[in-house]
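<amino_acid_chain>
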Amino acid sequence: EVVLMSLPPVPARRTLFGRALQRRCPLCGGRPLFDGWFRMKERCPSCGIRMRRGEDGYTLGALWFNLLLAESITMTVFIVTLVRTWPTPPWDRLQIIGPLEAILMPLLVWPFARTMFLAFDLMFRPPTEKDLA
């Protein structure tokens, strides 16, 4: 059971995203925010803020962050592999590992994308009492 209290002040951007990368509440640093790898709790167990802040399509923002993170990591690995092994890159391995990574990476970064999107949202829309209701 979550005890609703007053909203903590929004921390600096660096703190918001640092906490999000640790899968903590970007606002207060509370945890755990997840029941398993994919299922996010409805509220932060520490400050009580809603994880979905009442907007239709809120998860769509997290999906965009997921796509950005997953594909950035996939492309970085591909480019670094090309640069480090040039002029004879392991094309056979890249043809197998690349698609596998593109499929698995979104699953691996999903909880981070959720918390990162919450941090991003808090940067632009500070929490209100409605977020605690």
The longest strand covers residues 34-35. The chain has a mean pLDDT of 90. The two ends are 14 Å apart (CA to CA). Strands lie at 34-35, 39-40.
